[in-house]
Design goal:
Distance between the termini: 29 Å
Number of strands: 18
Order of helices and strands: EHHEEEEEEHEEHEEEEEEHEEHE
Oligomer: single chain
Radius of gyration: 20 Å
CATH class of the largest domain: Alpha Beta
Shape: globular
């Protein structure tokens, strides 16, 4: 049965969960002979791991990034789950912005590289994320996103089986539904327009489905809210899954949501860009487990 790496480290070496997470992030854990800086990675309980408590704190390991595209204007990275895009008051270190800055310093020798945010992914969502390298690029890409001239496909594992193999969810979103959480506007004219297109790719018995989602708009938590609204919350989503909903047999440590592709006409070079971020290990393991346990049917099966 898969287990989070930080939990395995905690159990094997007698560390608190927080200390185990710090050990992983600081490059003091080797997974099958190689350093691993992802506390949330799903591993088997018998996976060989080693702890080096006296190893100098890693400066580069925690900042390692998978680069999907790089040019003088934009850097597109594969954001790991569990990493914030930007710092928050209680989490200022090891954000994606910091990792990207370290990468650019090491690669180009610039001690203070500019890294600008043009869109975001939730902390526990993985996948393709574009970062601007100049102020000009920030303005150009923000205009691109505002005009919805970006192609974005997400993969999500959702609870249950949607009755339609494909569809469009057109429901406006509000920033506070009454419990300080985002939600769907219920009154005429309430909320900002939000449109999600989806298609069922695989069905795992009666338990869950793998769906592809395309954003026509890009509101915060849009896919998570929309899928929950039609009765199929993203597996592992502790925020938007209704509390009175029966326990799902598909369990996951985070929301099973991955930004798979990002495509656009480069606003500064005219080049057509299309990148794809590989499904991360933990989400791939979830999909494989569901296939093995419940079988697989195509959307029309």
């Amino acid at each position: 049965m898969p287990i989070r790496l930080d939990k395995l480290v905690s159990e094997k070496f007698g560390l608190s969960r927080r200390a185990a997470q710090d050990a992983v992030r600081n490059g003091r854990i080797d997974l099958e002979g190689e350093r691993c800086d992802e506390p949330g990675r799903e591993v088997e309980t018998d996976t060989p791991i080693e702890f080096f408590p006296n190893r100098p704190k890693a400066r580069i390991v925690a900042g390692r990034l998978r680069i999907l595209h790089e040019d003088p204007h934009v850097l597109i990275v594969d954001k790991p789950a569990g990493v914030l895009t930007l710092p928050t008051p209680d989490r200022e270190r090891d954000t994606l912005i910091e990792r990207a800055g370290r990468y650019l310093t090491l690669r180009h020798g610039n001690p203070r590289p500019f890294v600008g945010v043009v869109h975001r992914l939730d902390k526990d969502t993985s996948g393709a994320l574009a970062l601007a390298r100049t102020h000009e690029a920030v303005r150009a890409f923000q205009a691109l996103f505002k005009a919805h001239d970006i192609e974005r496909q997400y993969l999500a594992v959702v609870e249950g089986l949607p009755t339609r193999a494909s569809g469009t969810i057109d429901l406006p979103l509000i920033t506070d539904r009454g419990d300080l959480r985002r939600g769907v506007g219920r009154r005429p004219g309430e909320g900002r327009a939000a449109i999600t297109h989806y298609r069922v790719i695989e069905q795992f018995g009666p338990v869950a489905s793998l769906v592809a989602c395309w954003l026509e708009t890009g509101r915060t938590h849009q896919i998570r809210i929309h899928m929950a609204e039609i009765g199929h919350p993203v597996v592992g989503d502790a925020v938007y899954r209704p509390r009175n909903r029966p326990r799902c047999k598909a369990q996951f440590q985070r929301q099973a949501l991955h930004a798979q592709t990002l495509g656009f006409r480069h606003p500064l070079t005219g080049q057509d860009i299309m990148v794809e971020a590989t499904v991360p290990h933990d989400m791939d393991a979830l999909i494989v487990d569901l296939r093995n346990r419940y079988g697989i049917r195509g959307a029309g099966g």
